[in-house]
Amino acid sequence: MVTEVAKEMQAETKPKAEKQTNCLACNKLIKKLKKYYRNGKFYCSKKCWRAFIDKSKAESGAGKK
Ligand SMILES: [Zn+2]
Predict the structure, then answer these.
(1) pTM value?
(2) Neighbours of 23 (CB within 10 A)
(3) How far is the CA of 65 from the centre of ligand 1 (A)?
(4) Under a CB-based contact definition with an 8 Å cutoff, are residues 38 and 62 in contact?
(5) CA of 9 to the centre of ligand 1 (A)
(6) Are 52 and 24 in contact (CB under 8 A)?
(7) Cα(55)–Cα(65) distance, rounded to whole angstroms?
(8) Cα 54 to averaged position of ligand 1 atoms, centre (Å)
(9) Which pick of 7, 15, 30, 52 has the fewest CB atoms within 10 Å?
(10) Which residues are 59's β-sheet partners?
(11) What is the SS3 assignment for 15?
């Protein structure tokens, strides 16, 4: 099927997500820091995790309009 081939090609050309190395909240390199893992993402600390959750909540709330 042509459509299936096209789908596969799309999947291959799609840039692979880089391994997360920075905290999503403060953008510090996590490599050297203590990893705080939540919902499939890494943060340097619980504080940053909370900060990111609050931020994403605010963003999704504002973007709904
Ligand atoms: Zn952080």
Answers:
(1) 0.57
(2) 22
(3) 29
(4) no
(5) 36
(6) yes
(7) 17
(8) 14
(9) 15
(10) none
(11) coil
